[in-house]
Amino acid sequence: MRAPTTQRDLDPHHLERPRTxxxxxxxxxxxxxxxxxxxxxxxxxxxxxxxxxxxVPAAGPxxxxxxxxxxIDGPLLAIFAPRPVHALTKIEMFQGRLGRFLHLSGxxxxxxxVADPAAVKQAVRVLRDGGVxxxxxxxxRGAGELDRFHRGAAYLALVxxxxxxxxxxxxxxxxxxxxxxxxxxGARIELVIGAPFTLEQMPWPRRRADVETASLRLRDxxxxxxxxxxxTTGRRLPGPLPSGExxxxxxxxxxxxxx
Length: 259
Hints:
The protein is an alpha/beta fold. The protein has one domain (about 25-175, about 180-235). Helices cover about 30% and strands about 15% of the residues. The protein is built from six helices and seven strands, in the order αββαβαβαβαββα. It has helices spanning about 30-45, 75-80, 95-105, 115-130, 150-160, 210-235; strands at about 45-50, 60-65, 85-90, 110, 130-135, 165-170, 190-195. The protein has a seven-stranded mixed β-sheet, sandwiched between helices. β3, α3 (about 95-105) and β4 (about 110) form a beta-alpha-beta unit. α4 (about 115-130) packs across α5 and α5 (about 150-160) crosses α6. The chain is globular and about 50 Å long.
């Protein structure tokens, strides 16, 4: 389905704050076209298992919120989610050929170190157009235990009314593995999808305290899903990154400390 291109085509919500009537929808053709071949290629190397795919609504706006363990988390989410995903991706990745590919595949560049209204508007545009946005609330790779949790996913849910669907990633980094390391060939990788979690849509202005409360509710829900996923799969997370490999993280999280 094409993106709306005229004022008459636009959902009236695009005129609400933050306004997205002049924000272009990220590209979609490459993302949709490459997903089948990408799934085939990755499954030649890894044993990728997706549990709970039917929990993702088949239509309408959806926010996929995932824990962040390894360097391939973003590609896995975009490729194996039941629907094409426009993931908020750190702006440092948008360089050279990789950056061009990420742009063409519809991923959304995000400057994590400052408030980034352009990224927020692009994500809101996708959701108001009935698409899927991927968010990693931890903000950086780590143990994947949700110790650090940012407000972005809850904010998008409060703005758009889109349900948040938790995704627990397991096996994307080996225990003790480095920040950029890949799992060994043949490794089993799990994407465990939880039931949708709905936060009541909140009109502008949205107070910081309201977004923080919603974020803590979402984190509690994701922690429950994380514990359940580890039990049902019989797996465990890889533990912290080696010393000195944890990326700097901006203030603004509702839990944890800045490193």
